[in-house]
Every structure is written in C-alpha cells, then in structure tokens.
Amino acid sequence: MLNQVLSSAFIIGSHTADMAMALYRISVDPKSPVAADLYTMNIALRFAAHTANIKLMNEVMAPAASLGLVPDIVTYTTLVQGLLRAGRPELARQTLDAMKSRGMEPNERMAAMLVADLASTGKADGLTRAEDVIRDMRKRGIRTTVPMWTSLIVGYFRGGWEVDAWSAMERMRASGLRLNDIGYNAVLRHVLTNTPKAGPRAADTVARARRGLGRNIAKDESASSLAMKIFHHMRENNVPPTVDTYAILIGGLLHHNRLADLREVLEDMDARGFTTQNRSVVLMITRARKALKQSPRMRAERE
C-alpha cells in the first residue's frame, strides 16, 4: 500500500511530491508503524535522481543501513543516473566502483538505461554525459548495444545535432551493430522533416553514414529519394516497418508529392497485411490512396 501511494505521489513535477517525501521520512523513522522496504527507497530515490538533487539522494539513502536495506542493481542505476544528471561524473564512477565491490557488475542493460535517460532531452550536457557513459562502460568491458546507440542517435536528432547523430550512426555501424526500427524511424523522420545543415567538413561524416544506409546515395540526394533508399535498406536488413515508419513515410512523401514512392510504400504496407487503429494514421493512409487515384499519371498507368 505504501509503495502504491509513493509511486502515485512521486509524479515528476507534481505538487504531491513534497507530501510523498514527508511520507517517506515517516516510513524510515524507527518508531513508525509503517516500515519502508527497498522498493520504497528506490521509488523515493528515483524522484531525487530525476531532480538531480544530490542532497536529497543522500537523505533517501541514509537510513538504508539502519533498516537493513541492501542496495540492488536498481538502486545503483538510479543513483548513477542522478549523479550524472547533477554533473558529477566522478561520483557516478565511484558509485559504479562501490557497486562492483559488492559483487554486482554493471551490465549492458544498466548502460543502455543510463544512456537513454541522459540522451532523452536532446540537450548538449546530457548527450555529453551519455557519451561519457558509453566510454566508461567500454573501459569496464561492457559492450555497446543497439538500444544504447539508438538512444544516443535519437537524442542527437531530437536536439538538432545532425552531424553528431550521423557520426554516432557511423560509429555504431563500425562496431558491427545495425539500426533497429526505432533508429530507422528517427533517421527517416529527420530526413523528411529537416533541412540539412552540415558544413563542408561535417558533410564528409554525413556522407559516410548515409552510404552505410543505402547503395549509390548521391551527395545532394533529395529528402524523399534518400528516405526511400533508407526504407529499402531497412527491408533488406529484415527490420519490419512499424506504424511509425509508415506514418513518417506517407506523411513526408505526401508533403513532397512523391506519388510513385508513395504507391511503393502503400503496396509494401498492403503486402504485409498492415492494419492500425490509430485514427490519424488511418486518415493519412486514406488521403494517400485518394491522392494516387486522382493523379492523372497513376490513372494512365492503370488504364
């Protein structure tokens, strides 16, 4: 019951957060009839870590020993997230060392969670720390993974750091890993909705990464043409398109009036027996089919 109350109250930004902390302080009081367990402590710690409040994180952790609570992998992951958010990478590394001294090795899942959390906003400081995590985990012998790279790439694109995003994709490819559907969708969304901003030197990085996503991609490839080559690359690598993939492609191709490419995407969708209950996507598909029917060129091909 206590855990449910705290989980509901610790909504980030909620005015009930102070009340939840007060309840946590009561639960860790030795005289309290309501005893806190490790799960309770981790809930409170998650809130403190999200706010990057080191003082509050220390307060949450302080009663652990007296209550006989032994930190687990969730505790350490949350602590490291909070310390990195607070701009204290040296304390984060010490925490990882403390975790290792207790017989718990940092793992790939933990690294992926940290990178995802830090890269999620697309802000420069978070992305820098996400890169630090990848570098530090490599030193610890932890392999980089597809979710780790995907989070980093999506974060770069979200923040408008185009060249860094393409660079991360090139590094990911060099490590022997391939994009998943989330990564492909991020690239497609960027290609179809953003104007290239790479300078002369950065253009080489972008060009190398693009070539890794499709054969014969020209330097000045149009957005719609590049998107289709990426779509082909996605299918060649047996990564099934998702509702987001189709929505991004159909919306972008409609905007660019690329009806032949639009027909190819719709045919792929039909061949896969794709269906969705997403009303906005259904309306977009209906609009695309209508555009094809009304096109003189498409009508002539059918006749």
Task: Describe this protein's structure.
With 303 residues, this protein is mainly alpha-helical. It is 71% helix and 0% strand. Helix 2 (17-27) runs antiparallel to helix 3 (38-50). The longest helix is centred in the middle third of the chain and has 16 residues, at 124-139. It is elongated, with a radius of gyration of 24 Å. The model is unreliable at 197-201 (pLDDT under 50).
Low-confidence stretches: 197-201
Indicate the mean pLDDT. 83
Helix content: over 70%
The overall strand count is 0
Order of helices and strands: HHHHHHHHHHHHHHHHHH
Tally of DSSP helical segments: 18
How is the biggest beta sheet arranged? none
Q: What shape does the CA trace take?
A: elongated
Into which percentage range does the β-strand content fall?
A: under 5%
Instruction: Find the structural class using helix and strand composition.
Output: mainly alpha
Any idea what the radius of gyration is? 24 Å
N→C terminal distance: 68 Å
Keywords:
303 residues, mainly alpha, elongated
Which SSEs are present, and which pair or pack?
Layout: H1 2-9, H2 17-27, H3 38-50, H4 54-61, H5 64-67, H6 73-85, H7 89-101, H8 108-119, H9 124-139, H10 146-159, H11 162-174, H12 181-193, H13 200-211, H14 223-236, H15 243-256, H16 259-271, H17 279-294, H18 296-302
Helix pairs in contact: 1-3, 2-3, 3-4, 3-6, 6-7, 6-8, 8-9, 8-10, 9-10, 10-11, 10-12, 11-13, 12-14, 12-15, 15-16, 15-17, 16-17
